[in-house]
Amino acid sequence: MVGAESSVHDAEEPSAVPGGVRQRIIELVRKGRTPEELGRQFEPSAQAIRNWVRQADRDAGRRQDGLTTVEQEEVRRLRREVRQLREEREILKNFRARRGPSHLLDEKLGVRLR
Fold first, then answer.
1. Sequence spans of domains, the chain
2. Please, are residues 59 and 46 in contact by the beta-carbon 8 Å criterion?
3. Sign of the alpha-carbon dihedral angle for 102, 107, 112, 114
4. Is the pTM of this model over 0.70?
5. DSSP assignment, residue 32?
6. What is the three-class DSSP state of 53?
7. Cα–chain-centroid distance for residue 112?
8. Per-residue pLDDT tens for 43-56?
9. Higher local confidence (pLDDT), 80 or 1
10. Domain 1-66 in this protein, CATH class
């Protein structure tokens, strides 16, 4: 189970704390150390550590109060795709607007007015 969690976190965007260190801190919290104590000992804040533990719990199926890392990545990918499709649609719309309505005759009837 630990290996699956660390591989999910390795896929996240780059952060100041490497995935292996993050995973080790999460394990220390689960063994009873407080986020505040670990925050003083290591670089991340106690709140960041609490967030990591919550996200690791979602990824492991222990919590249902938010998206897993995989689901978050899919949402990001889909938003990027929608943004790209909207840009492409706008480009096509502008291209058709410049060509005028004669392109419809070209496409539908094979007639050229130019």
1. 1-66, 69-114
2. no
3. positive
4. no
5. T
6. helix
7. 48
8. 899 999 999 999 99
9. 80
10. mainly alpha
